[in-house]
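Work Package 4 report. The design task specified in the project plan requires that, given a folded chain encoded as structure tokens, an amino acid be chosen for each position. We show below one input record used in the internal validation round.
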């Protein structure tokens, strides 16, 4: 999103909450978690969440992954993309990363009711224009968000050589 023109004609930067998500890789698959409550209840998405004040985004991504799934990343996180999203009644900037899961089983937090490892190519195949339109049901914000997620997944697939 661009800056906006203020009342005095000055450019005022837009302010976003900052959020992260991680393409956690293991054996050619990525981890999805099912939300158990709050915003997006029942939906499957990448692990992640809000970045705390004075926290670096990569540190926030690692912390959220550990809190939500009990998983750590083996080595470095690689940035994949960024996109705006409307969540919890406000605008956020979602930063996505990828990294290889360290050894260990998924240990879900109270925020999630399920975990599954999915083939990202198969996941992308399901994100058709018709699916997005049906899911959005006329809500432009939902349609935009899922479109951004699909574009980000496309960037991820190109990065890993699967697109």
């Amino acid at each position: 999103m661009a800056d906006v023109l203020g009342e005095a004609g000055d450019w005022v930067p837009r302010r976003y909450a900052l959020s992260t998500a991680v393409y956690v890789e293991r054996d050619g698959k990525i981890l999805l978690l099912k939300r158990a409550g709050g915003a997006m209840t029942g939906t499957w998405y990448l692990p992640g969440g809000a970045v705390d004040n004075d926290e670096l985004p990569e540190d926030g991504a690692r912390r959220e992954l550990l809190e939500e799934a009990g998983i750590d990343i083996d080595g470095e996180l690689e940035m994949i993309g960024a996109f705006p999203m409307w969540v919890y009644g406000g605008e956020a900037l979602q930063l996505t990363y990828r990294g290889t899961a360290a050894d260990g089983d998924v240990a879900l937090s109270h925020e999630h009711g399920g975990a599954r490892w999915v083939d990202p190519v198969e996941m992308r195949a399901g994100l058709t224009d018709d699916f997005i339109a049906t899911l959005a049901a006329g809500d432009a914000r939902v349609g935009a968000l899922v479109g951004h997620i699909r574009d980000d997944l496309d960037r991820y697939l190109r990065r890993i050589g699967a697109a």
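The first strand starts at residue 4 and ends at 5. Validation will be extended to a larger panel in the next phase.
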